[in-house]
Amino acid sequence: MGVGTIPWLFGISLGASALGGMLGMASGIFIVPILTVFGHIDIHAAIGASIVSVIACSCGGAAPFLKGRLTNIRLAIVLETATTLGALTGVLLAGIVPVPVLFFIFAAVLLVSAKQMMSRRREHLAMVSASTPTTWIRRLDSSYPDHARGQDIHYRVDRLPMGLGLMYGAGLVSALLGIGSGVLKIPAMDTALRLPIKVSAATSNFMIGVTAAASAGAYFVRGDISPSVAGPVALGSVVGAILGARVLMIVSNEKIRLLFVVVLVVLAVEMLFSAFGIHLGASA
């Protein structure tokens, strides 16, 4: 490796994790193509470093999000069961569905999600009244502090069955394509469960760490995690995740939503190119 390799790895992982942590997405969706295309690192080592990066990103952002009361842990545990089942199904179906078809489906889902999130609906901020029926679903309701308004915002978890179905689909697609499911979890929580975008991002950040930790052991046993690559990436991911979490807490909901929509559209375009066998930035 060259002299500038370690600072370069640290820098790209810091930037990717800051963006991923702020949006509640797996930073690996940015890190893997950067390492393989620009760093000329073996794809297996890049994926292994990506797994470590996702865990580090989730852990790094956990403390600020929990301190800021943005993460809904109860809801995350419920949704993670559906995502895990979807991922297991995806592993079983891997190789059956043609990859180009998967890319088309994924791009269509991303574009529809972007359209839904740009509808600029009003945040679902209904107060939980004393007359609300006491059910286990209502125990998932919570609140978070809005620093811009200077008050706690109460929110309800709506349409949980639909949300569980979408989480299952997110896990399924992520396993089939080998990508993080955070890019699909955020739109699902935003449009189906009607969660505030900051709560969706923080809760997704918590969930992606659990999912990545479950698969990290397999990558380590296969020898796909290279310490010389994963080490600087993990360190940069922790720092980037902390920065991303702090930015999320001070930036308005609409700006976060707009940035996420831009990322969705860019990823959708990339998936469409991949469906036609065109890899941007790849050398001839």
Percent of residues in beta strands? under 5%
| Rg over alpha carbons | 18 Å
Order of helices and strands: HHHHHEEHHHHH
What's the end-to-end separation, in Å?
23 Å
> How many structural domains in the coordinates?
1
Helix/strand class: mainly alpha
Please tally the β strands and state the result: 2
Counted by DSSP, the helix tally is 10
Task: Assign a percent range to the helix content.
Answer: 55-70%
| Largest sheet entry | 2 strands, antiparallel
User: Taking strands numbered 1, 2, ... along the chain, how are they ordered across the largest sheet?
Assistant: 1-2
Quaternary state, please? single chain
Estimate the mean pLDDT confidence.
Answer: 78
Q: Give the overall silhouette.
A: globular
Low-pLDDT runs: 122-134
Secondary-structure topology with pairs:
Elements (H helix, E strand, L loop, with lengths): L4 H19 L4 H11 L4 H25 L5 H21 L5 H19 L24 E5 L4 E5 L4 H18 L4 H10 L5 H25 L5 H24 L2 H23 L9
Antiparallel strand pairs: 1-2
Helix pairs in contact: 1-2, 1-3, 1-9, 2-3, 3-8, 3-9, 4-6, 4-8, 5-7, 5-10, 6-7, 7-8
